[in-house]
User: Which sequence fits this backbone?
């Protein structure tokens, strides 16, 4: 987790984004945003191997925290399995259109 030159929070997640891992990730991200608020967040999902509904709920909460505007919040590099979860939650429209989602 770091901030770019424009003050946007860049969050690169690894491993699982699920009921077991979300509480700790959420706590760290909220603490960072409290210290240094940002209206722009980019979430790199390339390292996520598994995501469940708790992960989706966290992403929705994060989106709401930064104002919910697609330009201010985006998902990048989602794998095919993660993209399926995003599609079910209708968050796929906010994923990076140029990313390889593992589809042919």
Assistant:
């Amino acid at each position: 987790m770091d901030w770019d030159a424009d003050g946007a929070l860049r969050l690169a997640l690894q491993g699982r984004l699920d009921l077991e891992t979300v509480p700790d990730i959420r706590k760290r991200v909220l603490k960072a945003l409290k210290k240094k608020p940002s209206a722009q967040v980019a979430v790199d999902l390339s390292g996520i191997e598994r995501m469940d509904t708790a992960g989706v709920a966290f992403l929705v909460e994060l989106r709401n925290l930064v104002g919910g505007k697609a330009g201010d919040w985006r998902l990048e590099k989602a794998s095919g399995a993660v993209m399926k979860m995003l599609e079910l939650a209708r968050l796929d429209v906010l994923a990076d259109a140029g990313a390889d989602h593992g589809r042919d």
